[in-house]
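user: At home tonight, take the chain set out below, taking as long as you need, and be ready to discuss the fold:
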Amino acid sequence: MGANLDAASDVRRARGVAVYAHIFEVPDDQVPAAMASRVGPVFAEEAFQFAGGAAWADPALTARDRSLAIITALVAQEVQATASTPTLIWPERTVSTTMLLPR
């Protein structure tokens, strides 16, 4: 059973690395070092595991559905954070929705 968990973790990590490679526009093999230099190796590994998780790969939602959920969550967070101001401030390159949309 441990070997199956390790293999699943490796697949999940590889998917997460691919996500960040797309966001940062760098080759997959450069992502771990780039992330570790920005946020440290422990957080980088957590980010890879999260980004490659089942929620992003499960066929229950289409890529379009996931994109809409992400946009909705980001807008809701920004609206809540800026409730006292009439405008929304969008962070640059928070999420690349093009990577989530079907091609």
In short: The radius of gyration is 16 Å. Confidence is low (pLDDT under 50) at residues 85-103. The first helix runs from residue 2 to 24. The helical segments are 2-24, 31-39, 41-51, 54-57, 63-81.
